[in-house]
């Protein structure tokens, strides 16, 4: 028995049909990343909540949501930011497998077919595009570090 709610392969025609076709691949990528980010957030937050300034904030009478969000989560963001950057880069490589499994058109499928056909110009172009994405994501993560951790700011 199949429900037939979402198509399992192809790219679709038109905007709404493409959004309908992209739902399952997007959910597949998102669930894996959500589990990783959730575990990383939990680990980082548990480490921060055991520190002295958290105990001091509680001793001063700060409410628990304020202690967790204002003092705990803000200080747990630096490892979390690193994890999100690495996870985003891993999504690029994971999307190649997702494109193949769901038979979606994309740069991963293009690179795989170019490798099979020994089309070196397409391979070089795809590698350059992916390398530029890696550099751009790393730059973006460095800029986010400046916002998250005020100690990094240049004076």
List keywords for this structure.
elongated; 155 residues; mainly alpha; 0% strand; MetI-like fold; single chain
Short précis:
This protein starts with 14 loop residues before the first helix and ends in a 7-residue tail after the last helix.
Judging from the principal axes of the Cα atoms, what is the shape? elongated
Roughly what is the average pLDDT, rounded to an integer?
85
* End-to-end separation: 64 Å
Return the string of H and E elements. HHHHH
Which structural class fits the helix and strand makeup?
mainly alpha
Tally of alpha and pi helices? 5
Rg, Cα atoms, Å: 21 Å
Any overview of this molecule?
The protein has a single domain, classed as Orthogonal Bundle (MetI-like fold). The longest helix is centred in the middle third of the chain and has 38 residues, at 64-101. It has 155 residues and is an all-alpha fold. The radius of gyration is 21 Å and the shape is elongated. α1 packs across α3, α3 (64-101) packs antiparallel against α5 (120-148) and α4 (107-117) runs antiparallel to α5. It has helices at residues 15-48, 52-59, 64-101, 107-117, 120-148. It starts with 14 loop residues before the first helix and ends in a 7-residue tail after the last helix.
